Structure formats: structure tokens, C-alpha cells
Amino acid sequence: MTRTKHLAGWGRSTFLWMTAVSLLLFITGVVMFVLPATELMDMSPDQATWRRVSGVVHGVSTWLFCIMCGRGVWPHVRVMWHKHDEARKWALGLANFLLLAAIALGGLVLLYGSPDMHDWVSPLHFWMGAFCPLLFLAHTWRKFIPSRFDTNL
Fold it and tell me: Which candidate, 1, 6, 4, places its Cα nearest to that of 142?
């Protein structure tokens, strides 16, 4: 008797792409935080280049992240929304979703908001983004460490 594979709305390649794009957003966000735009005139040419490239890559990665949300997150939410088998995992997924929504709203404020809003949203956006990988790993750790008994891949 074979056990059927538990499908959670994620394909392996979609999950890996989402992880890669999230990692790229995290790295470029850290670079932009460490090398703030207000200090651009005082940076070395190499630092200024890293800052500018990180800003562009962060923007393009945001676009890819939106695509991956439509490709992977929404099908996952649709399949898993009513499955409360593992309350801890479900709560972590909901917290992850809410944190990503808050980060997205913060990103929109940073992109289109006034300079006054930018000053207080920027650190909030960074620290939420810095915390997000921990919440993502807490929710998805079984994807990274499969066991022979794990059927949730």
C-alpha cells in the first residue's frame, strides 16, 4: 500500500524559486540598509556601485516576488486555508502572510510616499524584512530537512 503524497499547493521548483527570490530580497535589503542613500556622496565608488546595484536588483526582485506569490503562495493558501491539522504550522503560515503583507505595504510607502513617511517606514520595513526569513524557516523547515517519513514534500 502506497501513501499518497500530501500536496500543499507548492511545487518543488516554485518553492525553490520563491526561496531564491526571498534570499535575494534579503541580501539586497541588507546592503541598502548598511549603505544608506543619504550617505551616497561620502561612499567610495565601489560602495556607491553596490548601493545602486542593490536598489535595482531589489526592485526587480520585488517584481519577481509578486510573480512567485501568484504562482505559489495563492495556490498554497487556497489549499491550506481550511486545514488546521497542525495549528502551530497554520499559525506560522498566517503570521508569515501578514508579515509579508506589511512588508509589501511598507515597500509601497517607500516607493510612493512622502519623504516624512519614508523616514519612519524605512527602518520598520528593514527590520520586518530582516525578521521574515526566521518566520519563513519556522514555517517551512521540513522542506529543507526532509526525512524518510516526511510525506509533505
Answer: 6
